[in-house]
Specification:
Blueprint: E1 2-7, H1 10-19, E2 21-28, E3 31-38, E4 41-47, H2 52-64, E5 70-79, E6 89-97, E7 118-119, H3 123-139, H4 141-144, H5 147-152, E8 160-167, H6 175-184, E9 188-192, H7 195-205, E10 209-217, H8 227-250
Parallel strand pairs: 1-4, 1-5, 5-10, 6-8, 8-9
Antiparallel strand pairs: 2-3, 3-4, 5-9, 6-7, 6-10
The chain binds S-adenosyl-L-homocysteine (SAH).
């Protein structure tokens, strides 16, 4: 296995690169790829930056230039449903590009000429991610996130959800829009800006992939409040601990 790990924000990636043994940095296409061992696994970590095109380019490069055999995406996302809380974790069971609409030529959400609206991650990777996330919440959350930050973000027994993740080139911060999307996409658990693009690339190149997201906001008018603080003090910790568990389990 050569594992590509994509993050969208620098804070989420930093701990992983620091954990690498003697990482080698390669610059390609305005991105820095860090190659090295992560807890015994041959890995390449990279920051995709934000949005579907950025993520698709990064995923393609990971496969075509750096030879990764599997891809994980770690990041934050808005809650796709009222039952999902800030601090919960979502593991994608399927992904859709919510701003893809070539109707009436193709059904809404269908990526033209693939015949697909939903892209499905690798089942095994999804199981391992969910197991790593559950294990983390049960045993390591208290050491990973300070009590002050847990109180600040009301992290009260966070949960792991599996379901549909919708990606689009839009930071979702409007409850009416979110409700419309939730109505159009049954089983929606999270909204973000990259996952379904990585999913399409991996589908087309035949690469198993997984997407895991920490819920940072409710995708409504309050979404931008404390966003960066959450990323730094909560989501970055989640990503580090969960990927560590994931890597240790895989070996
Ligand atoms: N304020 C940030 C921008 C973050 S963009 C900055 O200045 O850098 C949002 C990132 O988090 C994207 O990578 C996206 O995938 C994810 N995300 C979190 N909440 C989201 C939401 N409500 N809607 C869309 N993407 C969201």
């Amino acid at each position: 296995m050569r594992l590509g790990i994509i993050s969208a924000l620098a804070e989420e990636q930093q701990g992983l690169v620091e954990a690498m043994e003697r990482p080698q940095k390669r610059v390609h296409g305005m991105r820095e790829y860090f190659l090295g061992k992560l807890w015994e696994i041959d890995a390449v970590c990279v920051l995709s930056r934000i949005g579907k095109v950025a993520a698709a380019m990064t995923a393609t490069t990971l496969v075509e230039k750096f030879g990764v055999t599997h891809i994980l995406f770690t990041g934050v996302a808005g809650a796709g449903d009222k039952s999902i809380k800030v601090g919960d974790i979502v593991v994608a069971e399927s992904l859709v590009q919510h701003d893809m609409d070539a109707s009436p030529l193709f059904p809404r959400f269908e990526v033209p000429l693939t015949g697909l609206t939903h892209f499905v991650p690798d089942h095994q990777l999804g199981m391992r991610l969910a197991a790593a996330a559950t294990g983390f919440l049960q045993t390591e959350l208290l050491e990973a996130v300070t009590e002050g930050e847990r109180q600040q973000f009301k992290l009260d027994q966070p949960r792991v959800h599996r379901g549909l993740v919708a990606s689009g080139d839009q930071f979702m911060n409007d409850r009416v829009h979110l409700q419309a999307l939730n109505d159009a996409l049954p089983g929606l658990v999270a909204v973000e800006m990259e996952g379904a693009a990585v999913a399409q690339v991996c589908y087309e190149l035949g690469i198993p992939f997984g997407v895991i997201r920490t819920i940072s906001d409710n995708a409504n008018e309050d979404a931008a409040t404390d966003f960066m603080r959450f990323v730094k003090s909560v989501a970055a910790q989640y990503a580090f601990y969960i990927i560590r568990r994931f890597c240790r389990d895989v070996v």
